[in-house]
């Protein structure tokens, strides 16, 4: 019964142990499904389930029939045109990161969009190349098809190298799509949870640094070979600075001007986005202007700048991936698959929350997997999403993936009809545009200070991820970062927070005794909390902390007591002790005997419960003992373990916990466990945790229930201190006011 009194509440209920509560309130023993039950349910075939699977596999079927044509079509058209223009330029720019001819970047922004339209669940992201993924694919490309080291840069040689690189990029993309598709089919979309926000932030920032370094050769127009190996970034910088005097000044000046214009206009777009109807398409304007100037001034002949050149017109026939490449790029493909999905899903989640619609992680894996399989078959490279491109699609009025289809139409027009207009465009302009899209990633350096103040573990994860990805490469760096992040989880769970609690304000609230001044600690009672799961890796730490909290080692006390009993029996047998009704009197001079002599090769007997049945008097371990017999003092009689934060207990830890609790019980200390979650007792019973010493009656609903039970038990044992006041109108309800002053109402005493 709850009685509200102003902003207080008074609860009248019995003190409950777990077993008493379950018995009184009729706990149901529910049947819990086994693994095979879930498996049967998963593969069960019904018309309703088939319909659900079909709608889940083809999300377009569920939203396209309800498309609000009049309300949404104009916004989707405007967004599609703007996104398509940006996608064309980013496709060309990011192709440089992959080390393939720019025209192949257009395939990467065309095919995946159409596939995602059918299979994707996000309505707002723009599917296509992402700088980090492009760089990861480029790393595999350079490793398998290095630059021509002979210096024979003939057109035939370059064409052959480019063809090989295109095949490698397409094969890596195809294999990463297969991995994503398989992960989606076996329903492991949750894999993204192992990439924390700190890890993703540090990784993408490191990737941005790699992008900057990789584009220096286009900005400066230097023949820099690729170094896809640990510390490759250092070798690349060394190569750049060793040739710095050969810089093409025209390319450098053009790149700096483009970067300046892009950064300024993007800042204007961000600052005045509420007032601008659509963001200023700075990439489009800069590209058109740069292409026109390069064409009319003839930069290629006058200043020997590198230009895009003739773009491939139309589409190439789909090709099967190279089996030899697939065998050599399994690790790269797995990294690309996971990073691509993690980035895309995190961006899609932002928009799904903003516009209130659901996302399906497994279906997203299937959509991106199929997109990469199709894109790789048509010689594109890996796709995900770019935050800047998705931002354009959403901010210009895009409502659905109809905008994506329209953006694909813009790309199609460029591929089929007007691609030749981009032939005079300098590669340094595309490199500058690629760098212009990295502002958001590079600004993530600010997170270091914020994370250090908020969570030092996350800050360390960020820094380690960044350094590993920068110096070891993106593939090895990602694996290192994930391993380190999981290691921090193990460390944090292996060293859990263990505290001693006390009653605060004489209420039912228990907090860390070090944090408050108005506390009450019942005499002889220790309340110990472990705020972590208990398993094989941290059970010894838990045991050590518990022993530190109570101030003695129960096993040592038990052994000392058993040794003392052996010595007492020996002295009684020799007549050196005289028995009185209250104590034992020593009748002879004490002679010291070593512990080794007393053990007599029976050390295992010292760990058994103390047995005084054969003695003429019960030994009071707290009183004076005969000379020469000493045992550690124990000043507590009860321990309450707060298990409210213990989410699971594995079998190995269970055995150590059982042994530890028995050691306390054998030295006459009562053990109580409070706040254990549902199913905890059932698991302990299944694992034969309970016996004559460890019983289910030690479990209580709350800490307060356990403490009140202890106080009543001790007060009843010393009846002069117990005050019982029978309530009016009730014959079996009492208000118990123990000597400590804590109030509780109990049905039976």
Automatic annotation (TrEMBL):
<keyword id="KW-0472">Membrane</keyword>
<feature type="transmembrane region" description="Helical">
    <location>
        <begin position="104"/>
        <end position="120"/>
    </location>
</feature>
<dbReference type="InterPro" id="IPR001902">
    <property type="entry name" value="SLC26A/SulP_fam"/>
</dbReference>
<feature type="transmembrane region" description="Helical">
    <location>
        <begin position="402"/>
        <end position="423"/>
    </location>
</feature>
<feature type="transmembrane region" description="Helical">
    <location>
        <begin position="334"/>
        <end position="353"/>
    </location>
</feature>
<feature type="transmembrane region" description="Helical">
    <location>
        <begin position="460"/>
        <end position="487"/>
    </location>
</feature>
<feature type="transmembrane region" description="Helical">
    <location>
        <begin position="166"/>
        <end position="192"/>
    </location>
</feature>
<dbReference type="Pfam" id="PF00916">
    <property type="entry name" value="Sulfate_transp"/>
</dbReference>
<feature type="transmembrane region" description="Helical">
    <location>
        <begin position="127"/>
        <end position="146"/>
    </location>
</feature>
<feature type="domain" description="STAS">
    <location>
        <begin position="515"/>
        <end position="710"/>
    </location>
</feature>
<dbReference type="InterPro" id="IPR036513">
    <property type="entry name" value="STAS_dom_sf"/>
</dbReference>
<feature type="transmembrane region" description="Helical">
    <location>
        <begin position="365"/>
        <end position="382"/>
    </location>
</feature>
<feature type="transmembrane region" description="Helical">
    <location>
        <begin position="199"/>
        <end position="220"/>
    </location>
</feature>
<keyword id="KW-0812">Transmembrane</keyword>
<feature type="transmembrane region" description="Helical">
    <location>
        <begin position="240"/>
        <end position="264"/>
    </location>
</feature>
<dbReference type="InterPro" id="IPR011547">
    <property type="entry name" value="SLC26A/SulP_dom"/>
</dbReference>
<protein>
    <submittedName>
        <fullName>Chloride anion exchanger</fullName>
    </submittedName>
</protein>
<feature type="transmembrane region" description="Helical">
    <location>
        <begin position="276"/>
        <end position="297"/>
    </location>
</feature>
<dbReference type="GO" id="GO:0016020">
    <property type="term" value="C:membrane"/>
</dbReference>
<keyword id="KW-1133">Transmembrane helix</keyword>
<dbReference type="InterPro" id="IPR002645">
    <property type="entry name" value="STAS_dom"/>
</dbReference>
<dbReference type="GO" id="GO:0055085">
    <property type="term" value="P:transmembrane transport"/>
</dbReference>
<dbReference type="Pfam" id="PF01740">
    <property type="entry name" value="STAS"/>
</dbReference>
<feature type="transmembrane region" description="Helical">
    <location>
        <begin position="77"/>
        <end position="98"/>
    </location>
</feature>
């Amino acid at each position: 019964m709850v009685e509200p009194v102003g902003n207080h509440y008074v609860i009248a209920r019995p003190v409950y142990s777990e077993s008493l509560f379950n018995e009184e309130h009729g706990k149901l023993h529910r049947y819990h499904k086994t693994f095979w039950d879930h498996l049967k349910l998963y593969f069960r075939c019904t018309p309703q389930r088939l319909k659900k699977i079909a709608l889940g596999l083809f999300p377009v079927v569920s939203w396209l029939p309800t498309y609000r044509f009049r309300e949404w079509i104009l916004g989707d058209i405007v967004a599609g045109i703007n996104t398509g223009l940006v996608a064309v330029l980013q496709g060309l720019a990011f192709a440089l990161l992959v080390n393939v001819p720019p025209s192949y970047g257009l395939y990467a922004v065309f095919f995946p969009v159409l596939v995602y339209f059918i299979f994707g669940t996000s309505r707002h992201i723009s599917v296509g190349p992402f700088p980090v993924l492009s760089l990861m694919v480029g790393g595999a490309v350079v490793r398998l098809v290095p630059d021509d080291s002979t210096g024979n840069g003939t057109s035939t040689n370059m064409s052959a190298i480019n063809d090989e690189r295109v095949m490698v990029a397409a094969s890596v993309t195809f294999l990463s799509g297969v991995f994503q598709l398989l992960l989606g089919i076996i329903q492991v979309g949750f894999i993204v949870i192992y990439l924390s926000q700190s890890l993703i932030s540090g990784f993408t920032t490191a990737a941005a640094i790699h992008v900057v370094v990789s584009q220096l050769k286009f900005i400066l127009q230097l023949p820099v070979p690729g170094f896809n190996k640990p510390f490759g970034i250092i070798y690349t910088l060394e190569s750049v600075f060793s040739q710095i005097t050969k810089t093409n000044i025209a390319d450098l000046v053009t790149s700096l001007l483009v970067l300046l214009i892009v950064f300024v206009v993007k800042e204007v777009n961000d600052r005045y986005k509420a007032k601008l109807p659509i963001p200023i398409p700075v990439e489009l304007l800069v590209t058109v202007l740069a292409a026109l100037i390069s064409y009319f001034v003839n930069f290629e002949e006058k200043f020997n700048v590198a230009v895009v050149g003739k773009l491939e017109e139309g589409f190439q026939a789909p090709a099967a991936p190279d089996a030899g490449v697939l065998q050599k790029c399994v690790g790269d493909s797995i990294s690309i698959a996971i990073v691509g999905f993690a980035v895309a899903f995190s961006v899609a989640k932002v928009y799904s929350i903003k516009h209130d619609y659901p996302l399906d992680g497994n279906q997203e894996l299937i959509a991106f997997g199929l997109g990469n399989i199709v894109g790789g078959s048509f010689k594109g490279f890996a796709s995900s999403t770019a935050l800047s491109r998705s931002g354009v699609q959403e901010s210009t009025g895009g409502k659905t993936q109809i905008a994506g289809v329209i953006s694909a139409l813009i790309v199609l027009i460029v591929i089929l009809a007007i691609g030749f207009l981009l032939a005079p465009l300098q590669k340094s302009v595309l490199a500058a545009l690629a760098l212009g899209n990295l502002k958001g990633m590079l600004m993530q350096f600010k997170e270091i200070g914020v994370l250090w103040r908020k969570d030092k573990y996350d800050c360390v994860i960020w820094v380690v991820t960044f350094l590993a990805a920068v110096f070891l490469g993106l593939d090895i760096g990602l694996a290192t970062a994930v391993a380190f992040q999981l290691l921090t989880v193990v460390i944090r769970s292996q060293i859990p927070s263990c505290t001693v609690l006390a009653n605060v304000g004489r209420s039912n609230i228990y907090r860390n005794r070090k944090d408050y001044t108005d506390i009450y600690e019942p005499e002889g009672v220790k309340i110990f909390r472990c705020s972590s799961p208990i398993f094989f890796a941290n059970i010894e730490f838990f045991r050590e902390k518990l022993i530190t909290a109570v101030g003695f080692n129960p096993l040592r006390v038990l052994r000392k007591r058993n040794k003392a009993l052996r010595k007492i029996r020996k002295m009684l047998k020799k007549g050196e002790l005289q028995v009185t009704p209250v104590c034992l009197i020593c009748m002879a001079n004490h002679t010291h005997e070593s512990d080794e002599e007393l053990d007599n090769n029976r050390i295992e007997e010292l760990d058994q419960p103390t047995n005084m049945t054969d003695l003429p008097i019960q030994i009071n371990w707290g009183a004076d003992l005969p000379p020469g017999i000493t045992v550690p003092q124990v000043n507590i009689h009860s321990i309450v373990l707060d298990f409210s934060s213990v989410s699971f207990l594995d079998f190995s830890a269970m055995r150590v916990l059982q042994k530890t609790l028995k050691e306390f019980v054998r030295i006459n200390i009562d053990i109580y466990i409070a706040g254990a979650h549902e199913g905890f007792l059932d698991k302990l019973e299944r694992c034969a945790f309970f016996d004559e010493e460890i019983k289910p009656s030690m479990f209580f609903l709350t800490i307060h229930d356990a403490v009140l039970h202890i106080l009543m038990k001790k007060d009843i044992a010393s009846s002069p201190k117990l005050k019982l006041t029978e309530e009016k109108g009730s014959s079996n309800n009492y208000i118990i006011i123990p000597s400590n002053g804590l109030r509780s109402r109990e049905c039976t005493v």
